Fold Reverse transcriptase domain-containing protein.
Amino acid sequence: MPIINCSNDIIQLKAGTIVAYAQKLVKRDNGELAESGFEWIKKEVNTNQFKKSESFMEMFRMDEAKLTIAENKKVELLLNKFKNCISLNDNDVGLTSTIKHNITLSKDTAIKQPIRRVNGELAEKIEDILKQDHKDGIIRPSNSPWASCIVPIVKKCGGLRLAVDYRLLNRLTIKDSFPLPNLNDAVYNLHGSKYFSTLDLTRGYYNVPMDEQ
């Protein structure tokens, strides 16, 4: 059965969601449809009110927050307001346009690390991740003379995360000088605040593009 989304937003239907009911129609002897036993229901659903699927709100485990109904609603409205800033999965990666990452080196000698051997099963998993990242526009093929090794890391959940061994590159990198905020000032600015949250970037290194130069 085809389903039409009349809104401008992407709506994901959670697996197992009931979207319609089907029932056999009974014809009378005169050819008309019998309505006995049927309850015809016409219900229009305004899909514009759904900014994300139900699974979107389930990400935040609101039942653990111990909020009142009114507070819960305010938080839900706030999250939906900034829905475009929220990552839904590991491949839902942001990309800033306000800055590009530059690396200043002490010398321009290219670092080329040899490829490390991995077993067949792990190699297939790495290949799948690289293909998906390339498909999602997160990475791209390169013929640069600079090359560092991939370090596969098994996460607690059993998934695989790809890191890169940049230790040799870091030895040549001239570090940026950037002052850290004063802790006392930060605590003072929190005076009177009631709600607190922590923010983290999904696969943060991919959120800042590299300078082509």
Q: What stands out?
A: The longest strand covers residues 150-154. Strands lie at 150-154, 160-164.
